[in-house]
Amino acid sequence: MKTMALHHCSYQVARAKVETVRALTDLEKLFRLVLPDGEALNHDPGQFVQVSLFGVGEAPISICSSPTQLDSFELCVRRAGRFTTALHQLNPGAEIGIRGPFGVGFPVIPLEGNDVMLIAGGLGLAPLRSLIHYIIDNRRDFGKVDILLGCRDPQSMLFCDELEVWRKRLDINFSCSVDRGAPDWEGNVGLITALIPGVHLEPLKTVAVVCGPPVMYRFVIQELLKKGIAERHIYLSLERHMKCGLGKCGHCQIENLYCCRDGPVFNYADIKNIKGAI
Amino acid sequence: MDQQALLPQARLGEFVAFLAARQKLIGPVALGYNQYKFAEVTSLEELSLDYLPTILPPKKYFLPYHERLLSYDLSDGQGMEPVVEVEDITLFGLHTCDLAGIQCLNMVFSDHPRDLHYLTRKHHMTLIGLECTDYCDHYANCAMLRTHLPKGGYDLFMTEMNDHYYVDVNTYTGEVLVREADLFERVTPLALKELRSLRDAKKKIFQNELPIRYQDMPKLFDDTCDSEVWTQVGDKCLACGNCTNVCPTCYCFDMADEPELGLTRGHRVRIWDSCQHETFAEVAGGENFRGQRSERQRHRFNRKFHFPLERYKRVFCTGCGRCSRSCMAGIDLKETLNALIDERS
Question: Which of A200, A223, A228, B141 has minimal CB crowding within 10 Å?
Fold first, then answer.
């Protein structure tokens, strides 16, 4: 068997430089990355990249910055296993490999001109943040914007400084809730589903985008449907382990759909009858 | 050059020697105990042309169990070079079911985004088929899937007749082989007649093994999504992954990095994986989207008879029977399909 050089392939990685690293909580770090020559990643909000560290491996990470940020992109990474632990040890100046962006992102065009309801649970805020920043940067193109955030506890809340900004802005209705309060917590305590009934919305012109842990979806969708939002107007970002990102390896497959190729963002009406999707 | 030729049976040995002298020749070899494998051969004597489907299908040459995708060198940061492991190979004596399996893999890997590792290797293969005139054993269900007859996917295709092999020349590569071997004769009207009667006889032998039509398969799986049959199959299953390893159309894989001893250089490799393994659909944090063996078995059957029809317009089972033959728990594909059909009616 001969080993030959291949001119090009889908598995090759591009170099990216770690510009800054910021600890968001005990578990999550935010990496700002720059491509060679400051080239833009040119992604859609909600897409993901395969992050590579040779000798350790590869993992799919959703992009948490908006494509309107042209000079760099950001990844929010929770330390959960071998690969993410290695990633957490990196300092500014380090190099990582990038493949992508991959997948179908959030429905930016159908959202334009409509009221937008963005619902994030826990680490789901990371992918959704790419859309939130995109909307803020193009705020005039959208109707009323509601952001609902649910977290386990105040300590695990991500992007706290940005949340404060969103809370203060008049063109965004931001509310959040924690499952378990803390002594100095003054906000809501309870599940995110409890926030939905209180939102004033016009169901016919509202599109909801939901991103959170798998258990959250069923309950959130029930509440959204109760509010009169059409199934077609609900978008979800699903979590699976995309290993190749090319619609081949099978790990992220949901029935006949590949999460890496057909998702990770799906329209609820398209997947509600697919077994094992939600 | 005609599109068909005859090879006298007495000269098959010379043809095999000619092929082996040209480039690496692979064919079915007996292992004893009615087991066969594809392996390198240099002469006709080493081949077992009357063989049951081999333990592993020819996919091992197209999509090796372990293959290097990239070579990296950490002294250059995340520097890397795409590499492909490739070799000129002639695969000899492929049954129609295995040719169909290769056709399925070709579709998947030439679908966008194209897999250049696979496609590079594919272009280094010469494929020579061999027709079955009878069933290999009771596990086969090729007639139902219409893979018991040649439908392209080969350079040459040989059918054994009384004194000759009737050889269909399907490609320019095949034409060159026939010309250069200089062992072939022109097709005679008698040979054509003999081929027709052989194919007629096959029609009587190979009949749909299951009471369902090809085009009705997706509906069967739509209807039996919540069937008890899946629970029963799941209860038997050992989640070993034998069925997917031996399947000619299973191509799920994993990727890993293999550093050399010095730790600065190494390779990113692709290794076969199986949707039957417990952690296959698990994500960081421990959530498992197909944690039950019954779900994983249902997924496997759907990936053969249901899902590919939408994207590739064909069933991804070739009827070779390998999964049933190799299952340690005795899960039988035909039995399972029959149980689903029974339950629905």
Answer: A200
